[in-house]
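User: Structure tokens for this complex, please. No commentary.
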Amino acid sequence: MSPANIPEMLELTTSVQYVKGIGPRLAEVLGAKGIHTVDDLLHYLPFRYEDRVNPRGISELRAGEMATVIAEVRTSGLFRTRRMPIFQMTAGQGRSRLKCIWFNATYLRDRFKPGQLVALYGKVEQGRSGGELQLVQPQFEILGDSSDEAEGGEQKAASSLEVGRIVPIYESAGQGRLTPRWFRRIIHGVLENLSPQLTDPIPAVVRGHLSLISPREALRQVHWPDPGESFQDLQVSRTPAHIRLIFEELFFLELGLELKRREQKAQTGIAFNLDNRAREAIKKILPFHPTAAQKRVLKEIASDMEKPFPMRRLLQGDVGSGKTIVAFEAAIIAMENGYQVALMAPTEILAQQHYFSARRILENAGYRIVLLTGSVEEDRKREIRRHIAQGNAQLIIGTHALIEQKVEFAKLGLVIVDEQHRFGVMQRFKLMKKSADEGTSNGHTGTAAPGRPAEQRSAAAAGEPDVLVMTATPIPRTLALTLYGDLDISILDEMPPGRTPIVTRRISDDRADEVWQFVGKHVAAGHQAYVVYPVIEENEENELKAALQMHKELSKKTFPHLRVELLHGRLSGDQKEDVMRCFQKGEVDILVSTTVIEVGVDVANATVMVIEHAERFGLAQLHQLRGRIGRGAAKSFCILMTGGKISEDGERRLDAMVRTTDGFQIAELDLELRGPGEFFGTRQAGMPSFQVANLIRDRQLLEAAKREAAAVLAGPNEKVPKEEIDRALRHMRTHWQKTYGLVEVG
Ligand code: ADP
Ligand code: MG
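Assistant:
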């Protein structure tokens, strides 16, 4: 290669505006799609391919199939029917003809000219009159159109990209300005001029394990597959080229997470002493025999706590699996070692509930427990803060405002975040960071509590507090590996004994009378019931009214002789607490509520839950709600009431609820229905956004990526030399921001 050619050569880092045919204006359009560099552009993958090697003969088409046909435009025109304008075009191959129709397509009026070559892709259907086959609403591309090509020479080159091969189909960009055809031409040009030397950032041993092809080859093949490539593999992203690109993306994600884990482990933490005293203390408070799962999980937590680096552990356990007691056990270990524990819940109601159970279970043993939430009076708050700063309070329970308000701890050793599913991942990262900062600032500044014994101060300087996050959302493994890949994970996969499975039924609105009869029967038998209304934020006012209205009706008309109470988000903390306490004590028979009860509330005598407009709730939410019942020995019933038209997804959600109570199965389906970004309720949840990988499709590659990343970071050794690790880490850092998006890391 002559030196004169070098400036023409494109590197992956080259900005797209220097690519021939792009320039600053189009670069801006691409920028809006997140395409800034040649690398980004080459990762703009086709979403499907068309087999134009052997285009189909019109005469061999069959009704019902998807087909690509290349043919010549014969006639076209717009027809107006009574209902809508229909555009019709007839294409031909020799003597065979094929009718194509598009509904409401006035815009196609001047699009086709007789004699043009077109590629058509769509579903073959039997025409209404006389059995003639036709394509309905096909996607099309005019192959021999000279209007959007600049020079004649270029046009020839370009049109050879359109036929006689497997052709990549891209999503258009810039409101249709950048057509699939445009992408084809540009990307083809980029690949021709791409620097032949792309170093592979993946260490050789990993490449070997997965038989990965080189990055340059992968980029070429994924856009312009060789003629022999399996068309089926292409369509499902399973060619060697796809696998290489997907694995690469997942590998660097896992490498980043693994690195983070290692960094956390390298920090100084507190090595709690797990002596007999702590063991005895735990045994003494246990109100029941722990399940095998609870024992195993406690062991995992305790062994983390003993180690001299900070614990970062996620405890996953379906609703009702008994996480609270595990959290209390961990708290005892910290308290027996002379440390304070902060336990944070997502809502005030839950914080209060934890506070009551903590007092019930721990106070007799002499632990000093305080509740610090927003609704506590100012004077009382000040007093509580003083107790915390002086180290009198040992277990501090509150909402996550605890951390945000910079409460000063004398000697914080353990932070427990009862996340349920309310905290997004973003919040979790923030919380963890803050809890860590909190611990550090305690330790290093030592400003709190004059007169604190010196021994305590030096102990406080010993290291960062341990962090235990608890979640009731069963997280499909693929998500856990990506979202929580930096945490160690414990799973409570066993329910406490004596539970009878919940019976779930869906019943249409118009049978409400029967439902209320059923509720009445169970209350008469001494049980309690929940009636839940959806309150969706955008329509909060109306929905709230519906709940209020329903409460009135149920309490005045349907159940005038029963105690029916109302719980919703607009009540003050005190009011909520009152209602909840009465319900807990059995002084309320029926609790009409919005979804504020969805997390954590624990009343074993409540055995019936009626969910109104169940079709409007998300699957995870329905599952959470249902978790409020089935907590005692008596059989429980969940009634999903539906009204009006239900979407297809709604049907699948309701179906899943009736079919199973297994949280993991429900989570898998939820992930499938909503996609990873929505899984946690918001797009801002900090899901990594992938260019080519798809967490649902690519689980196996993700597992492999995690395994390989861990092995690489265990080096350097004879398999992975240091320079390969360094190169991989450099690559990971430069690509980090892109993949992790909003998540703040490090
Ligand atoms: P969650 O995991 O949803 O937070 P909880 O900790 O609230 O679940 O526990 C649910 C219920 O099960 C509580 O009433 C709790 O006292 C009870 N429970 C927990 N562990 C056991 C056990 N090992 N044996 C009997 N009951 C238990
Ligand atoms: Mg709980």
